[in-house]
Design a protein that fits this description.
The chain is α/β, with parallel strands linked by helices. The protein contains 13 helices and ten strands. It is an enzyme of class 2 (transferase).
Length: 319
Amino acid sequence: MTNASNMTPALLFPGQGAQAEGMGKDWAEAFPEAAEIWSQADEVLGFSLSKACWESGEEVNRTDIAQPGIFTTGVAILSVLEARGFDRFSAPMTAGLSLGEYTAHWAAGTFDFASGLRLVRLRGEAMQAASEANPSGMMSLMGATDEQAEALAKVGSEFGICQVANLNAPGQLVLSGEHPALDAVEAAAKDHGVRRVRKLVVAGGFHSECMRPAADKLAAALEETEIHAPKIRVISNVTAAPVETVEAVRETLATQVCAPVLWEKSMRWAIEQGQNRFLEPGPGTILAGILRKIDQEPEVVPAAQPGDVDAALASANAS
């Protein structure tokens, strides 16, 4: 494991929901290193992922396009920083929200770009298929406590699959499940002290048993993928602790599809280790906003646009 100063920024990578039409295009136009990553992605997948992300409008929001697109954007941005002197293995730790955990593992040297891209493409396809086979969704509980979320999940489970899916930050909790279960949650929310709920615009009930077929397909693919022990600490969504062995990587990435995302616990673990600076290479700045709700002290430097390069490198080189 690489040891580094707490002042060296940890790397954070966003998950699905960060996608936007055109993501990564400005990087590819500005930097040859980013253009090369997108070219590789098109070649590995056998179709133009770049065109799907840059020119196809709403298609970028499809689970099977958004996931490889976000992954490729993160890798392309980090490749630009690496070409200008940044050493990703100098980061003391890394983490990614849901899908972003794959980008974190690539950054940690767990697998190469082509292997990671094939995994996230399969993950997206399998999750899309599971969503179509079993109509389901996700629901945000505004201002709910963990206890309220668990109670409402229990209410919903009387009508179908219903689980706590994301514990992102205080008051930012998400349930996942079959539609009748979520309808029951919506009806019961006020009785449990939750004033507002909102159904999310997603393909299905991610991070719940609705995704079991996807988890099984992913587990099989992970067994066939060449995986190495991470060179830097990768904080697992499933355990909110570092994953250190090849076996643990395979197990946590397969489990993650049906298990709750423990993002708040993951970030609190990092902060408890003394980590107070983070770098967010990827589309948007979603994780910076979430971290502010968890703890306002840490600094998060974005690397979302080509104009962020100098500040990102300065942050990475500060000590």
